[in-house]
Design a protein that fits this description.
Layout (H helix, E strand, L loop, with lengths): L1 H24 L4 H23 L8 H27 L2 H7 L2 H14 L5 H20 L4 H24 L5 H23 L10 H25 L5 H8 L2 H13 L7 H31 L1
Length: 295
Amino acid sequence: MQKLALFRLHLIVFLWGFTAILGKLIHANAQILVFYRMLFAAIFLFAFIRIYKKESIKVSWKIFFQLAAIGCAMALHWYCFFYSIKVSNVSIALSCLSLSTLFASILEPVIFKRKIDLSEVVMGVVIVACILMIFKTEFHFKEGIIYGILCAVFGTVFSVFNGKMFGKTSSGNIIFYEIFCGWLVLSVFYMATGQIFQMNEINYRDLALICLLASVFTAFPMLESVNLMKYISPFTLILTVNLEPVYGIILAFFIFGESEEMSPIFYVASGVMILAIIVNGLMKSRKNKKLKNFN
């Protein structure tokens, strides 16, 4: 069962890595892409929870508004991610995601009221240095890097606050309301600014790809990641998720070729960032084991 769980875990991380590939294949702009991704994902999740599982989606108003706020952070995270891809490439957007670990090392202790881990701060400094190297060597992608960094910021906000919601209602309800409310807020914003009419500017090819993105590459892996928590530790999940940029960058290189070719410094810096995250995770695991044995 453990081996099967690890296989399923790597499968969903691979699927998450492939979302960047689909983001580049879809010709629609980031606003339209995120609007329909959240709409279709919410529909799939509603059908799964209410029709297939026959479970209630009733939550209190307090939880609803909390999930709505987190859903806004999710929408901004996805928008910045796909916009970064559109104005630069997959490799830039995915490499910037590594900054999420740095932002989490700062935000998580504040929200969960724990001491700042010195090893996380050191790792954060390493990651910032690597991002600065990438920014310097790939300056022509500066807009993509800036939005990639914003993507990491909103992704961290979403992940940290999402962690405080688990246990307040079912995992399916949490994911559904976050995505649905994110789409609802986008809809209200687009109506207020008159951009809602631009949502019709999409062809059937893009709609089909977004439908695939929303189901196989969004709703399924999110639900699967929650189910896997029964069989694997949170540490294993987090550590494996850090492989998402690796899968995505390799896939992008083989699928898109020259448009994804970067300078040697980019690959060195990206490799150092990912290695720093993995080493930090292993050090934490060893530290936790020692504390358990001591107790």
